[in-house]
Amino acid sequence: MATLEIDRLNKTYGTVRALRDMSFTVGAGEIFGFVGSNGAGKTTTMRIALGVLAPDSGEVRWDGRPLDLAMRRRIGYMPEERGLYPKMKVGDQLVYLARLHGLGTVAARTAMEHWTQVLGIDARRGDEVQKLSLGNQQRVQLAAALVHDPDILVLDEPFSGLDPVAVDVMSGVLRDRAAAGVPVVFSSHQLDLVERLCDRVGIVKAGEMVEVGGIEELRATQRPQWVVDAPAAPPGWASELSGVRVLRYDGARTFLEVDSPQDGAEQAVLRAALATGPVREFTPQRPSLTELFRHVVSSDEAPAPDSTTGSRTTPSTRQEASA
Ligand SMILES: Nc1ncnc2c1ncn2[C@@H]1O[C@H](COP(=O)(O)OP(=O)(O)OP(=O)(O)O)[C@@H](O)[C@H]1O
């Protein structure tokens, strides 16, 4: 298996610059989380990767070669707007889609049976898609992305609206496909999930990739944070300490950033805290992906997404890329 390369994609819709030199790579067997505010350019990037949208400039490569039509058929894609035939039965639909991707009748039926079982919708094979709950429709949509045993998986918000059990099923499938060597890229606003699941993360802002790396790598770019529990400390006790920025006071607990632990700034904080009385806790904090995201994106007006609930957008709720 090879690497998927997204190389300096630019795309403008009328006056909206949706992508500016968007670049990243997803290696074989890697799960890549694509995160960014509403309207940041994730769907546009994915649609270009699939070939349903042409970039103004830039290239998508697979194994070092520009993606051609044959290769694009080897992508398993889950579109944000979903794309199932509502009146068609689940099983018939999956067989039909597998056939469209070149599988023979028997192989298509076997694949349909396999994926409906893995995704827990085997009992619904004979039902029209429109009669399924939204979460189950989403499982069918994932089955549709997988039914032709794709070499690359590109999934636009696959977790939005799923219950916790379905999230686990979906996560397990993505891990399995990655373990089989498939590069997996998915967008999500559920940052806790992205943090749990992804080998690497790309944070997009206004059409540009602004941070990319493993979660630990991204954390290392942040200033170290500490929590100090000093019940006798007077209000504002840490505000004047040098090399320290207080993030917030929360009862007896103080959350702060220090310039660098190598400078011993955190030891000075501890000494200052002890000078006020007992210290019950003095602990380094690891910023979550949500905090990293807020830090990267919140330098302007773009709202950070809720980390625990999925969000779905419609064209009417989109924000402009420059927002
Ligand atoms: N067909 C279109 N015509 C005009 N503008 C568009 C079109 N599709 C997207 N845009 C604009 O391009 C920008 C990027 O949109 P895109 O859908 O790629 O963002 P996104 O990161 O997927 O957002 P979300 O998280 O809300 O799904 C937005 O400003 C959006 O309004």
From TrEMBL:
Keyword Protein biosynthesis: no
Single annotated GO MF: ATP hydrolysis activity
InterPro entries the UniProt entry points to: AAA+_ATPase, ABC_transporter-like_ATP-bd, ABC_transporter-like_CS, DrrA1/2-like_C, P-loop_NTPase
PROSITE patterns in the record: ABC_TRANSPORTER_1 (PS00211), ABC_TRANSPORTER_2 (PS50893)
Region (Disordered): 297-323
UniProt keyword list: ATP-binding, Nucleotide-binding, Transport
Gene3D superfamilies: P-loop containing nucleotide triphosphate hydrolases
Keyword presence, Magnesium: no
Pfam families per record: ABC_tran, DrrA1-3_C
Bias (Low complexity) ranges: 307-323
Superkingdom: Bacteria
Domain ABC transporter: 4-231
SUPFAM superfamilies: P-loop containing nucleoside triphosphate hydrolases
Family membership noted in the UniProt record: Belongs to the ABC transporter superfamily.
Official protein name in the record: ABC transporter ATP-binding protein YbhF
Name of the coding gene: ybhF_3
